[in-house]
């Protein structure tokens, strides 16, 4: 890399809302005052992350006309994403591709979608022409990327790719009307349910293996006994975060289950 310090790291800093613009201005001024303004043009980008109105975001960037490398995302948490309307995402993509804004330095150059975990939603994001996806399942994104519909248009980014430049692609080929190529609503729902259960199963397995919950519960039990918890159990204290006997019993049941499932592999 030809940067002054040889760094290859590029960072997108996301502020919550447009009224956090003071942070952007202060950060920008601090970088310049330390003589490292090259970072602002090559290594640092910006994003407003909490779905503020698009006109308010555009107005903020116009006020901060020294800022470049602007990303804009849209989405919801992964549990709500399958039911989230993509109207706002579509509007962001249209703004990114509007030729009348190409000459404006501080305008949206990249669009990302979050948090996209289901395969059917990953395909929808790709068809919406996003530049990036935030997901808990990168293997699903990779598999969809290799499908015939997307393999000529999308690939994984590399160090040589600039995260600030628009990437031009050829218009997609018209899709042939094939029943096999268009899954039914029922099939989409079933596939989504299977992937959701798979995500839950992975989460539970990771939780059981790490035993984070068990460590917390038994540590709380030790603290209770060492501090005379049972002697003072008749006194109610709303600020006490100690666990109940039922929770301890449940923890012991979970521990037994973990030993039965994972005991042979340890």
CATH class of the largest domain: Alpha Beta
Helix content: 40-55%
Q: How many helix segments?
A: 10
Q: Could you spell the SSE succession in H and E letters? A: EHHEHEHEHEHHHHH
Q: What does the radius of gyration come to?
A: 25 Å
Ends distance: 45 Å
Give a short account of the largest sheet.
Answer: 3 strands, parallel
**CATH architectural name of the largest domain:** Alpha-Beta Barrel
Total of domains: 2
The H-level CATH homologous superfamily of the largest domain, spelled out, is Phosphatidylinositol (PI) phosphodiesterase
Q: Write down the oligomeric state.
A: single chain
GO molecular function: lyase activity; metal ion binding; phosphoric diester hydrolase activity
Keywords: Disulfide bond, Lyase, Magnesium, Metal-binding
Catalytic activity: an N-(acyl)-sphingosylphosphoethanolamine = an N-(acyl)-sphingosyl-1,3-cyclic phosphate + ethanolamine
InterPro entries: PLC-like_Pdiesterase_TIM-brl
Please give a structural write-up.
The protein has 266 residues and is mainly alpha-helical. The protein folds into two domains: 11-173, Phosphatidylinositol (PI) phosphodiesterase (TIM Barrel), CATH 3.20.20; 186-265, no CATH class. 44% of the residues lie in helices and 9% in strands. The protein contains ten helices and five strands. The strands form two sheets. The chain has a three-stranded parallel β-sheet, with helices on one face. Strands 1-2 form a two-stranded parallel sheet. The radius of gyration is 25 Å and the shape is globular. GO terms for molecular function: lyase activity; metal ion binding; phosphoric diester hydrolase activity. InterPro entries: PLC-like_Pdiesterase_TIM-brl. Keywords: Disulfide bond, Lyase, Magnesium, Metal-binding. It catalyses: an N-(acyl)-sphingosylphosphoethanolamine = an N-(acyl)-sphingosyl-1,3-cyclic phosphate + ethanolamine.
């Amino acid at each position: 890399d030809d940067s002054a310090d040889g760094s290859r790291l590029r960072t997108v800093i996301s502020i919550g809302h447009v009224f956090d613009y003071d942070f952007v201005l202060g950060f920008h001024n601090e970088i310049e005052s330390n003589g490292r303004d090259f970072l602002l043009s090559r290594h640092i980008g910006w994003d407003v992350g909490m779905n503020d109105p698009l006109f308010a975001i555009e107005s903020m960037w116009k006020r901060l006309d020294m800022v470049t490398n602007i990303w804009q995302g849209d989405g919801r948490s992964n549990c709500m994403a399958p039911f989230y309307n993509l109207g706002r995402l579509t509007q962001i993509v249209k703004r990114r591709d509007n030729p009348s804004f190409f000459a404006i330095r501080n305008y949206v150059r990249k669009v990302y979608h979050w948090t996209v975990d289901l395969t059917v939603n990953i395909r929808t994001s790709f068809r919406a022409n996003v530049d990036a996806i935030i997901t808990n399942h990168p293997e699903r994104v990779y598999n969809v990327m290799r499908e015939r519909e997307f393999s000529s248009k999308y690939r994984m980014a590399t160090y040589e790719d600039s995260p600030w430049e628009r990437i031009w692609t050829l218009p997609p080929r018209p899709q042939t009307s094939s029943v096999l190529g268009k899954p039914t609503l029922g099939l989409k729902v079933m596939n989504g349910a299977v992937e959701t259960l798979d995500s839950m199963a992975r989460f539970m397995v990771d939780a059981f293996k790490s035993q984070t919950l068990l460590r917390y519960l038994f540590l709380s039990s030790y603290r209770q006994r060492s501090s005379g918890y049972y002697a003072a159990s008749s006194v109610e204290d709303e600020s006490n975060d100690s666990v109940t006997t039922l929770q301890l019993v449940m923890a012991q049941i979970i521990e037994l289950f973990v030993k039965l499932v994972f005991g042979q592999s340890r």
